[in-house]
Amino acid sequence: MCSGPAVGNLDMMSNQVGALAGPTLTIALSKRAPSSALDLIPNSALSCRSVQMSCLSSLTGHHHSERFALPKMTWVQQVQHYAPIFRWLPHYNIAKDLKFDIVAGITVAMMLIPQEVSLSTIMNVPAHHGLYTAATAPLVYAIFGSSTVLSVSSGSEVSLLVGTILEDIDNEDERVATGIMMAFLSGCILLIVRILNLSQLADFFSRPVMGGFVSAGGLLIMLSQIPNALGIKFASQDYPPLTVYQIFNHIIKTNLTAFAVASISIVYLFGVKIFKKHYFPSPVLMQLFESEKTTKEESQANTEELEQILTPVVNNAEVVHSHGFSLTDQQYVSLRTARQAHGDRHVQIEAAEKAIVEAPQQSKAKLLAIFLVRTVCDLGPLVVCIVGGIIGWALGSSRLKLTGTIPEGFPDPKVPWYGFDSGLIAGDRFGTILYNSLTVVVVVFLSSIAMAKRLAIQRGEDINSDQELTGLGIASVVCGFFQAMPPTGGMSRTAVNLLNAHTQLASIFTTLIVILALYTLTGPLYYLPSATLASIIIVAGYSLVEFKEVKWLYRVKRDEFVVWTASFILTLGLGVLDGLIASIICSILALMWKTKRSPVVILGELENGRFVDRELFSEAHDLGDVIAIRVDSSLYFANCERVAVFAEREMIRLQALGITTHGVVLDMCNMNDLDATTIQVLSDIQEKLAVRKIRFAIANAKSRLHDILAATNIIKRILANNPSISVEDAVRMLRDLPPSGNASPSSMSRLSVQSKV
Questions:
Q1: Which residues contact 368 (CB under 8 A, 6 or more apart)?
Q2: What is the pTM of this model?
Q3: For the purposes of burial, counting CB atoms within 10 Å of the CB of 474, is it exposed (0-12), middle (13-18) or buried (19 or more)?
C-alpha cells in the first residue's frame, strides 16, 4: 500500500540506486584493492556505477563530486576494454584450460564444416563462402567478444533470411557479391549501434514476438529443404503457402535415391540426439581429465560449489528442458514453481553430490568410452556427410545432385563493395541492400545477444551487450573483406562449447582446423549430396521450433500467447523477411496495447483503515460518496484518458445504488512521470468534476510530480492545493467537507493544516 508523500534523503536514494545495480557491483568493489586495476571491475559493474552516479546527479540537480568518479583507464586498460582477449590471455592456465579448449575446438570444427556447407545452400551461394565465414568470424569474435563460449559463424535463422533476400537474383556472382556486401554493411550497422549506445533498442522486442518469429523460421527452414530432400526442383515462390503447393504439385517427380539418403540421414540425426539425451546426458570430460586420486575434500568442495550454482536456480523456480528460441536446455519456468522447487533443492544437491563422489571411481576407459560416444552423437552431421559423400562418390551426379567443385585454400582479401566497382551490382540497389542488411542486423543482434546473456548466467560470467555488438560488428566487417556471409551465434555449436570450452581459445582452434580443411578437404566435399545437406538443415530447423514456450504462455500469459501466435502465423504466411517486419510491428503494437491499458484500480477500505484494491480484497468496502483511483503505472498521452473512464464508470455504479459522488481521489504513488497531455487531461477532469460539484484530489505525488504540477494552475484547483497528501488524509478531508461544492480556500487551508497535524 502506498501512503504518505514520497520523501527521502540522498543517502537513502543512493542505497536504493545501489541496490538496483545488483550484487555484481558490491562484489566487484569489495574485492578490489585500493590500488588495483580498473579491469578487475566487470563491465556491468562499471555500467551500474555510472548509472548510480548519473541517477544521483539528476536527483540532486548537481554533478557528483570528482572524488566519486571512476579512475581513468590507462591505455592498457583501454585495449583490454575493447579487446577482451587481452584480459584473460595473459592469465591463461595452460595446464588447467588448454586440454578442454582443444577438445571443444576440434569438436566444434567437425560440426561446423558440414553445417557451413549445408547453410550455404539456404543462402543460395556456393559452399566455400560458408566455409570462409567459419574461417573468419570465430577468430575475430574471440578477440573482441565478451562471451567465453559463444560460437560465431553462420546460423540457421540468418542464413534463411539471407537466402530469402538473395534468391531473386539470377546471376550467381551478383548473389555472392550482394551477400558479401550485406555482411560488411551489417557489421557497420552493428558498430554504429554500439557507438550511438542504441543497444537498449533490443528491449522493445519482446520474447514472445521473437519466439514466434524464430519458431516459424525453423519451420520455414525445414520447408526450404524439402525439395532437396525429395530431389525435385521448381521455381522459387514468394510465399511459403505457394511453396507447399508446388511441393505437392511436383511430389510425383521425387528422386527415390535422394529421398532415401535424406530420410536415413534425418532418422540417424534425430536418433543420436535422443540416444545421447536418454543414455549419456551428463558430460564426463571434467572427470576424464581429473586425477583418479581426487580426495573427498575436493569432492566436497565441488559439491559446495554446485550447491551455490543450484541454489538460486532452484529457489526461484523449477526449470524445464526446451529448445528453440530458449537457446539453451534450461530456460523456461514451469507452473510448478517456488513452493515445490524449494523442496526439491536438497534432492537435487544430494544427487549431484552423489554423482560427484562416485564419478572418480569409474575407470578412465569407461569415462573415455562415454566421452567418445557423446562426441560421436554431437558429430552426427559429420557422420552423415561422410556416409553421404561415399554414396555420392559411388552413385555420381547422374543419380544424386552433388555439391560440386569447391575452390581450395583461403581467399585473398577483397573490398566488400567490389560488386559496385565492377558494375556487377547496379548502383541504385545500394538502398535495398542497406535495408536488407538492417533486417539481418535485427536477427543477429537479438539472437546472439540473448544467447550470450543466458550462457553468461549459466556460467556465472559478466556479459557486456555493447561489447557483444563490437565483437559481432567487427567480425561481420572482416567477413566482408574475406568473401564471407553475415555471421551470428550458433546454438548447437555453442552448446558444445558450453560443456567443454573454458575460453574463446577454443574458437581459435576451430578457425585453424577450418582453414586446414579449406586446403585439404575441398576435393571430398565435391561428392556431398544435396539430400544429405538438406537432412542436416531440416534437423537444425527443427531445433528452432519452440512449442513448450507457447504452451507456457497459453497457461500463464494469455495476452502474450496471442502475440506469439500472431508473429508465428504471419511469419509462416508471409515468409521470413516480411515475417520479421510483421513481428516487429507485433512487438510495437503489443507495447502500445500494454501501455494503453495500464492497470487502473478502484480502492476500497478495510476494517483497519487500509486502502487496497477492492478486486483483490473481497472484504474491502466502498468509500461511500468518495471514489479513490490508483494508477499502477505512469500516465502519458496514450493512456491518461483511462482515469476519466474509470471515474465515470464508478460514479454511474454508485448512482445506480443511490449514492451521489462528492469527491474523487487520484493516487499517484506508482507514477513517476506526467506528460503535457496528461496534465491537460487531469485539468479537464477537475473542471468537469467541479461543474458537477465534485471535488478532485491528488495524493501521494512524488517530488518530481509535485514540481510538475506546481508549475501549472491545476495545483490551485485540487483539494488542499497539495498533491502529496496521503489517500487517507484526502478521503478524510472529503468526508469532513460539506457536500455543497468546492470549499473556500480558507477551509481548504485549514483542513490541510489539520491533516499535517
A1: 288
A2: 0.72
A3: buried
Collapse the DSSP code of 32 into the 3-class scheme (helix H, G, I; strand E, B; otherwise coil) and give the result.
coil
Interacting residues of 316 by C-beta distance below 8 A, sequence separation 6+: 333, 337, 338, 341
3-state secondary structure of 321: strand
Task: Give residue 448's pLDDT.
Answer: 82
Q: What is the homologous superfamily of the domain 599-756 according to CATH?
A: STAS domain (3.30.750.24)
Q: How far apart are CA 81 and CA 77, in angstroms?
A: 6
Question: What is the C-alpha to C-alpha distance for residues 332 and 314, in angstroms, rounded to an integer?
Answer: 13
Nearest in space to 285 (alpha carbons), one of 490, 151, 104: 104
Measured from the Cβ of residue 118, the count of other Cβ atoms closer than 10 Å reads 30
Taken as a whole, the chain contains a residue count of 757
Q: Is the separation of the CB atoms in 384 and 269 below 8 Å? A: yes
CA–CA gap between residue 450 and residue 447 (Å, rounded): 5
Q: How far apart are CA 14 and CA 24, in angstroms?
A: 16
| Cα gap 374→365, rounded to integer Å | 14
pLDDT, residue 739, reads: 63
Q: Please tell me the distance from the alpha carbon of residue 386 to that of residue 378, in angstroms, as a whole number.
A: 14
Tell how many helices (H) and how many strands (E) occur in the chain: 32, 9
Average pLDDT of the segment spanning 518-538: 92
pLDDT of amino acid 543: 83
